[in-house]
Request: fold
Amino acid sequence: MTKNKKPTAAVVEKRSFWERNEASGGVLLKETSKKYAISIFRLILLFGMCFMIIQPILNKIAISFMAEKDLYDTTIILVPKHFSVSNWRITNLLMEYKLSLFNTIWVSALVSVIEVFVCSLVGYGFSRFQFPLKRFWFFCVILIIVIPPQTISTSLFLHFRYFNLLGLKLNLSSSMVPYLLMCLGCMGLKNGLYIFMIRQFFMGFPFELEEAAYVDGCGPFATFFKIMIPGAKPILTSCFLFSFVWQWTDSFYTDLFLGKIKLLSTQISGLTERLGTYLSGLYGASAMASVGYSNAILSTGILLMIIPLIILYLFCQRLFVESLASTGVKM
Reply:
């Protein structure tokens, strides 16, 4: 007599889905339906979220290439009937785009480098050293994240307007010095968040590397610059990108301290007023910009502002994603 052999995997695969489902007592159909239902739900959810993010940008791109008469045509949704680049030309002129772009790049880069350097020192100190009132000072870092900067705007302005340096009163409110001093003191835009992120990264860093550096004769600063900084490139890159983007789009500190420097954020805020002045110069004092045309120029200005950021992200996305994946949340 021959013994009954169990069917091999190849034989099972050759059987139809319904045969295998019948053999499993209906479990296969139930699990397969559940898997596909979850996949379809996830697809719909992701598509909806992506559409919510991308749709406003697509609208702005479409509006920026429309002639003024297309803005009031109810039959036009995204594709303009009268394609025009005049909106881009006028917006470039009104924003003084080349000068504003250059100023925004060097201001954002300078502020970001200072903030990342100082916050990395502070974050390393919180992660490795013990000092009096450490928990209290870290609580103050959390407060910097939680408390909106607008709540201390009046105090900041008065402090730097009547700045007292060893009895010498100075007016620093019309220069970039106050903002740089705040960045050096870890009180700049979102500095508390950078300290927290860098501290969390260093908390997961192996202590053995520092101990080996100390054995080789390195002090705390030499260890920080030779061991910790090279290993923290992902998180430092992420913090730099955060700082650069937030400074690029910031209007609060820009208006408070950097009002005399032409930046893209300040040029955007007064774009519609300059459009009215521009049209008055062309067609007379009675000329006024319509609401739709003003919105088209504003949308074009926003696109001119975010295009450099998109290019920056395309070049740095690998390091950015790597830093988010490697940063833990340890307390």
Residues 8 and 136 are 66 Å apart (CA to CA). The mean pLDDT is 82. The two ends are 68 Å apart (CA to CA).
